[in-house]
Design a protein that fits this description.
This protein is an alpha/beta fold. It has 2 domains: 77 residues, 434 Repressor (Amino-terminal Domain) (Orthogonal Bundle); 211 residues, Endonuclease, Chain A. It is 54% helix and 12% strand. The chain has 13 helices and 6 strands. It has a 6-stranded mixed beta sheet with strand order 3-2-1-4-5-6, sandwiched between helices. α8 packs antiparallel against α9. It is elongated and about 75 Å long. The termini are far apart.
């Protein structure tokens, strides 16, 4: 356990150690549940990070999965104590937000607060934390037939708080994003909103607070067919990256080292074939000027 570790880092270290030891000893989650006299769902939730494990539960579990080295056991028990101090007062843990956020999204936001690097590949929209309020509202507004007005306000507020957290960490948080050209072309919320959104990305990129590259439409590369995903590197954590992805109907956190490593490799491939940052910033500036012209023409006609 490193001094100053957060509950997020400590909890992740415990559950990864449990899972890796279980798999190394060819034990199934069901076998663990039966041995510990737990429900299978409890084992799944511990390994997935949905819940923390108590010190009293952890001691016999470590012995069963083969972790018996005294120093390692003591370190994991110490981690478990830290993990139990989970940030219950964090805004995303409040009932009004939990009701409208998936488990995967809450865990992503928790990881983002501890992240040292944020990498995102998107073919539809800018990453969530970098969507301005008007743009985010335009996106969520498409679901007003499914979400009650009061609930929609909570969703928008959650987006605002997540964005505030990330923007407050720029400078210490490394951000790199590869965005398909369609992200800059699709007029979510109309020309005025898109222009404002692009000004935000242009300003952050021009100031060096984020690194942004565009995959142009004329790029002839099969690797550009990957679905959107985010990769989070956690400060003080050597257990690999965390990946978040969604398909519009479901979302998930993926922590399998092999899978996250493959996606990191894909991200790097995309990064190197995308337009250089200076060219991307120039393209965004051109799109802003084009949209401003269209807005002026529209207003003059009215």
């Amino acid at each position: 356990m490193a001094e100053g570790d957060s509950p997020t880092v400590a909890r992740r270290r415990v559950r990864l150690a449990i899972r890796e030891a279980r798999e190394a000893n060819n034990l199934t989650q069901l076998q663990v549940a039966e041995q510990m006299e737990w429900s299978l769902s409890k084992v799944i939730r511990i390994e997935s990070g949905e819940v923390s494990i108590s010190v009293n539960d952890l001691r016999p579990l470590l012995a069963f999965v083969g972790i018996k080295n005294r120093a390692e056991v003591n370190a994991l028990l110490a981690d478990a104590r830290i993990a139990r101090t989970r940030q219950r007062k964090a805004w995303y843990q409040r009932p009004e937000f939990r009701e409208h956020m998936s488990d995967a999204l809450r865990r992503l936001i928790e990881y983002e607060a501890e992240a040292s690097a944020f990498r995102s590949y998107s073919i539809y929209y800018p990453p969530g934390p970098f969507q301005i309020p008007a743009y985010a509202s335009a996106l969520t507004g498409a679901w007003t037939h499914e979400i009650a007005p009061a609930s929609l306000e909570t969703v928008v507020e959650a987006r605002r708080l997540r964005r505030e957290t990330i923007l407050g960490r720029l400078g210490s948080l490394h951000v790199a994003m590869v965005l398909d050209q369609s992200v800059f072309e699709r007029t979510i919320g109309g020309p005025v909103v898109l222009a404002e959104q692009l000004r935000e990305l242009h300003d952050l990129g021009n100031r060096g607070l984020i690194n942004i590259r565009m995959l142009p439409f004329d790029l002839d590369s099969p690797i550009a067919n990957n679905a959107s995903f985010d990769l989070i590197s956690i400060a003080g954590e050597s257990g690999g990256e965390v990946m978040y992805r969604e398909n519009g109907l479901t979302d998930e956190i993926v922590e399998d080292a092999a899978s996250t490593a493959r996606h990191r490799e894909r991200f790097e491939q995309l990064w190197h074939v995308a337009n250089e940052e200076v060219d991307t910033i120039g393209f965004i500036k051109g799109r802003i000027e084009y949209l401003e012209t269209k807005i002026t023409e529209r207003r003059s006609r009215t």
